[in-house]
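Bench notes, bay 3.
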Amino acid sequence: TAAAFPAAYDTVISVAATTRNDDLASYSNYGDWVDIAAPGSFITSSFVTGKKNVITATGDNNTTYGCISGTSMACPVTAGVVALMYAANPDLMAAQTSEAVDAIREALLGTTDEKEYVYGDHSIKGLVQADKAVAAAKEAKVQVNKKYTLMNAAGTFGAHITGKIARGTKVQLSFGDLKGEKKDKSLKKALKSAKWSSSAPAVLTVKNGKVKCNKKASPGTKVTITAEADGDVMKCDYIVTERLIGAGYCVTTTNRKGKMKLKLHGKSNWTAYKDNNISLTDPSLNFKYTNLVFSKDSDDLKNNNWGYLADGKFEYIVTIKDKDIKKGNIEVQYSDKGKPIMATLKKAGKYTISYKTIEGSNVGFTCKITVK
């Protein structure tokens, strides 16, 4: 079958489905872009049907649990095996690096049964083997940082993080402890004494955590920044992007000659209701027509054309007044890495949430919300 995305991306493990008869399922994708197979037919699921006499893989007809077939069943089976692999070797989780992810991938794909699973004129080789995969994961060796983690301006941290950087701009990385805290004064000293390097110095240069992007860099270029300090190794993979020209509520007008112009309102007023949720990672989910816009080349700026809408994978610094959080007016939810991801509007009133991108363009917008 034709490659399906995101499954076909190189960084994704693509899973085919097999049947109870050890055949490739008729509904399953196949091709050289598929990595592994897992059981996917007549899988007893966890949702309750409320009815008995539901046929299951074991033939049990006295259950009220539903039975489903699909690659959507094969993928969770594989994900469950990966969870067991991480549990078997705590270093793989503690490492938080691409090295650990590569070790998992190698152990998972290297321990299949190597059999061919066939349907019609096509096949997939290799069914997941949980016991062997877990055993291989136990033996995997990866570096685990003992003191430091790398952090970006939005608070994302880890031994290996990713981000965007606009050409012709600069961004600042910092050190945190393993919990993503920056309170220890020794962290700044470690940042300056660290050994910094770039995988492509002609595109990105780095000194003391300050990363500069060449204004002639090609968008889409990937560069890895590495920091070494006291035996710890940290990395950030940057993707070069066009420089953003603005953010906010987009309004277009057309003149008499039919030429379209774009105007971005950096401030907007919105009405919401108590207990409404506000995404702090992708503002476009909350505020209609709120977009990031960048220009492909200088002519777009001169002609005041639409430019090009950026995708939603930009990170933001989010600002909410401390008093609104402390008083319980706004309840903020955080990710397991301490990053704010969701705000719930708990009380009627007027509040302000500000967003600012961190890829170097320094664009942002402010949303004033009236909660009823």
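Next record in the batch:
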Amino acid sequence: MFLIEELRFVSVRQRLEPVNTILQQLCTDLNARAALLSDIYGRVYAKCGELGDMPEETLSALMSGGFATLMEAGRTIDDDAGAVYLAYREGKHRNLYSINVGAQYLVMVIIERGAYTDRLGAVWFYARQAALDLSRVVDAQLPAEAKALPGKSTADDFNNAYDSLFYSDDDKQENEP
């Protein structure tokens, strides 16, 4: 049993290696305090740097909720599945930036404010590059069915699955006009 758990751990660690490399490069490029990759549910998968007294789970859950709102607002505007979302918070001591990685993940970057703090344009450039790189890594590692998000056909899929539980194909044909 121990060997199986150890193999799972090694496999996860190997899959996260390119993610960690990308996040580390992002931290270096921006002189960031920390960078995190989380999913849209707030689960943190990888990080670089130190958050200190900031709770990463709370931060990622709050940012994920904000991104869900931003993505829904975007769908209302033009339903562009490939849209890029950037959230930015400029604080007294730290700046917080977040960008989506496809529709299921986001990267958060925390930068200490100082005399030579990076500007939004530089952060946008490097964060966007990291998001594109991370998207390629995630796409290469996930099976197709894991990448699919529930879409507009979810209700139809549910109804069809429900119908298949209670009705035979013959029953369905009898009820069709």
